[in-house]
Amino acid sequence: MLDIYNFNPGPAILPKEILLEIKKNFLNWNDSKSSIVEISHRSSKFIKFTLKAEKDLRNILNIPENYRILFCHGGARGQFSAIPLNLTKKFIQPNYINSGYWSLCAFQEAKKYCNPNLINVRRLTKDNQVYIKSVQHWKVSSKNTYVHYCPNETIEGIEIFEEPVLNNKIIVGDFSSTILSRKINIKKYGIIYACAQKNIGPAGITLVIIREDLLQFSNHQSPSILDYNLLAQSNSMLNTPSVFSWYVAGLVFRWIKNLGGLDFIEKSNTKKAQILYKYLNSTNFYKNYISPVNQSRMNVTFHLQKKELTNLFVNIAEKHGLYGLKGHSLVGGIRASIYNAMPIKGIKRLIDFMKYFEKKFG
Ligand SMILES: *Cc1c(COP(=O)(O)O)cnc(C)c1O
Q1: Final residue of a domain: which of 207, 226, 259?
Q2: Domain check: are 128 and 160 in the same one?
Q3: What is the count of structural domains for the chain?
Q4: Could you tell me which of 20, 88, 195, 318 has the fewest CB atoms within 10 Å of its CB?
């Protein structure tokens, strides 16, 4: 049987061994005699599991003790509201960095609650490649502000590797599609958040890593379920969490730790992306429009020079076991999402297919 590779942007590929483990233990989770989707979130076995999951996550991301880890509801979009609701009591006029689709969405949601400042940092090179201005040129307003940005624009395939340092300003990052793909220095951020369905697990929980002193600014008029302070006090169990997603996330954290942590993961991701971009550079049949400094390691986007062949490419790719390659409708073209769980074999299979397709239709 043909191996299937899932290049979907999210929900995305999960490690095969984890899926098999879930299947094996599904009906009798952790010797509880009940399935993981029936067990109480307040049972001692599950609480124990969440503590271990948190410990593993702290270990792999090197999260300092003065940061709290919350597992929230509502996906990354829920956080687009939660961030201003929890911070604008103190930081009245936030700055929103615009690097693409998701960062702009976060800005638009924030406008419901405050008067944010939008800063466009996207530019074009002479060869029509998109790049992001370096952080020192981000013109943020200076008073009472936090700075929100998105280090990986999932739709366009634009990644910002430079870690923002802006005069002690509180940095808030939407890490949905790059979390756990490389090392980051948590201390540089006030809040990091990420939905689960890219590198963490199934949709249903949302990770928030928040510096403890920021908890005090939450706005008590906001919905309780978005109130970081209440979520922290209840250990993310203010109401019923998605037990299943939390469980799979815990398995993913353990998987990363056992592989050798983010050192290993980052090396492997760098190699995977390099192989694919190098191939893209070697042909005129396909073209990527992102400047090399900002080429995403997680979402590799490209267009066929003969645009009319795009759908055919996607359809035939599926017949070759390569799924989820259609680009987002806003940008068109092809997008290969190559998250942590995508093996290098998947990249090689994709390149072999691209060569075959070019030969046949080029
Ligand atoms: C996927 C994604 C989102 C949206 O996540 P939801 O959980 O569907 O709300 C937001 N931001 C980024 C960067 C994403 O990749």
Answers
A1: 259
A2: yes
A3: 2
A4: 20
What CATH number is attached to the domain comprising 348? Answer: 3.90.1150.10
Q: Same domain, yes or no, for 137 and 93? A: yes
Q: Give the separation between CA 202 and CA 18, rounded to whole angstroms.
A: 12
Please say if 29 is a catalytic residue. no
- The kind and range of the H/E element at 257 are helix 243-259
pTM of the model: 0.97
87 and 192 share one domain? yes
- The pocket around ligand 1, CB under 6 angstroms, is made up of 10, 75-77, 102, 150, 154, 174, 176-177, 195, 198
Alpha-carbon 159 to chain mean position: 11
Give the distance (Å) from ligand 1 centre to CA of residue 236. Answer: 20
Domain match, 267 and 254 both:
no
**Residue 227 annotated in active site:** no
Query: Within 13 Å and on the Cβ side, how many CA atoms surround 21?
Result: 14
Residue 73 token pair: 């509801």
pLDDT of the chain, 362 residues: tens digit per residue: 789 999 999 999 999 999 999 999 999 999 999 999 999 999 999 999 999 999 999 999 999 999 999 999 999 999 999 999 999 988 889 999 999 999 999 999 999 999 999 999 999 999 899 999 999 999 998 788 999 999 999 999 999 999 998 888 999 999 999 999 999 999 999 999 999 999 999 999 999 999 999 999 988 789 999 999 999 999 999 999 999 999 999 999 999 999 999 999 999 999 999 999 999 999 999 999 999 999 999 999 999 999 999 999 999 999 999 999 999 999 999 999 999 999 999 999 999 999 999 999 98
Q: Nearest C-alpha to atom 4 of ligand 1 is from which residue?
A: 76
Is 102 assigned a catalytic role?
yes
